[in-house]
Amino acid sequence: MGEPSGIGPDITIAAWLRRAELGLPPFYCLADRTVLAERAAMLGVACPIETVTADAAGACFDHALPIVQLEAPVSARVGAPDPANAQGVIEAIARAAGDVRAGLAAAMVTNPISKKVLYDAGFSHPGHTEFLGTMSAAWTGEPGRPVMMLASPELKAVPVTIHIPLRDVVTTLTERLIVDTGRIVADSLKRRFAVANPRLAVAGVNPHAGESGSIGDEDERIVRPAVAVLQAEGIAARGPLPADTLFHPAARATYDAVLCMYHDQALIPVKTLAFDHGVNVTLGLAFVRTSPDHGTAFDIAGTGKADPASLAASLRLAAELRQNELAG
After folding, report:
1. For residue 118, pLDDT beyond 90
2. Which of 31, 35, 163, 219 sits a CA distance of 20 to 30 A from 210?
3. CB contact at 8 A, 202 and 229
4. Where are the beta strands (DSSP E) in the chain?
5. Cα–Cα distance between 247 and 308 in angstroms, integer?
């Protein structure tokens, strides 16, 4: 469901209405039926909705948008997020993971959420990625670590550090963090993206990758040793490489994914190259999880302006990753 006051309901409805055109696999939505019906009316579209159980969703997908009703009460005034809806948002995430674990769904796709709404309601995790990591760990009995990848046909980029202030990046980066991230990315590329011999580019943290230590010592002290460890383990990793020359077409042809040292170093190129069809993929989980790479867009919720392209790409990629995993 995602944040009900944002564009999640809009793009869910639009994706189902354009399911054939967008080439979508069958899906169902864990949501409140009334919220979806009210949003369809606001958008002025005829969207038949059917309340189903997860195991019966496939049978109605061709003629109605399947909704698995949430237990928590949910209401939605467009553009006005309400902490009272946080329990429903969390329930949808938790139940989706449970459905995948139970074999009722192949993969999980989450609509955008508002972290502030969850925080205001007392949510204790930094975000739903970390929440999913906790559930995955409980599922497997192994701690694991969720890793965020922004994926598109043009570029797959992974920020090693994510939602932290830029001033904290160099104190948070460690050789182990880069190595652990590289291992998870290489493994996921093999198992879920069907890349037989993954090639990783590793960006430097400083301009010109530190210029041999003359512009900060972090690249020589932290990044280069991490790359050496990955190489010693048989992973085709290169770096540290200057980030300003990593994203043009010829450079992108030399690697399958790039490890970036901070959030914007990864997300700016992906959103420049694939703003309307990029996908947020969480690696390192026991199940496949994808999400649109945009936010809740409260300002256009209910207006009909929201583009379902990223959600459609997320649905298609989730199905592809699960199929690759099963085939491997």
Report:
1. no
2. 163
3. no
4. 29-31, 49-51, 65-69, 108-109, 147-151, 156-159, 199-203, 236-241, 257-260, 279-283, 289-292
5. 26
